Amino acid sequence: MLNQQMVIMATLSDLVTALAGVTGLPESMIFAYGRFARQAGLISQKGRGRSAASMTLTDAANLLIAVAATGVTREAGTAVETFRSLKRGRLNLAAGLSPALLNWLQPLGIRPLGQGQDEFEVKCDFGRFLEHLISGTLNGNLASVFQNIPVAEVPPELWREWKRTESIHFDESVDLLIRQGLLKAKEPSELQFGEDVGLEIHFSRLVPAVEVEFLRMWDSRQTAFTLMFGHQVRTPHEMRLVATLTQHTIAAIALVQRDMARPSAVKTQKPMDALFSQQLRRLSAALIGDR
User: Fold this and answer.
1) Which of 72, 100, 154, 162 could cross-link with 167 by S-S, CB 3.0 to 4.6 Å?
2) End-to-end CA gap in the chain
């Protein structure tokens, strides 16, 4: 008689525990967001306990949106519907950094705006983009984008020496230092998410809009790309309510949704760091093999 092994996928409770651990918000609050989103038909529902519904990629994305898009748990359903449907994805690129990102976004539909090569429109809505981002975080496609973004910084000991000796290099740009051979861009295997490269998703709650920033270290912390969803409306007031998610939050929810990490483990950030490190080492090895 064959033994049958039951594969237990993540439930809403698992995603709640993971998101509480990585954001620091109380589990009761995140569960309330999930409950109201589920009542609105935006998160899968079936049974309880071991028979509870397995969370899909869309469920994970909707829970993230609910938590980030509103400070009122009862508004979770409305917030998810509003923010998922945001369109006019406007992509701005730093010079020379476009190919890797454009290739990654190609399945979502992109078209150039104007005559330049630094501004594009992403045709999908924000909900579709967020699901693409969650998948890309898990399968290494996001790491592949960052692999192609040059990253460099002056080592602390060299910086101190230049400052002590009042070296002419102290005030020179990283671009010039690299051209002079005094610095070199880091290899993919040396990169660390959250330090050398990073991703931040800013949810503007008062005026529904989302800004996605792809960040790198260069002369200082620098924005390599921005992707904006929604209308940027000028308002007479100055108050801003913005919630920010990072690449570690996205990776945490992705790992738990796919049952690749325990919900309680992501609080330490070790599963996310291990995921990114493994992806970048693999990309670095492939790059060396192609040389």
Assistant:
1) 162
2) 52
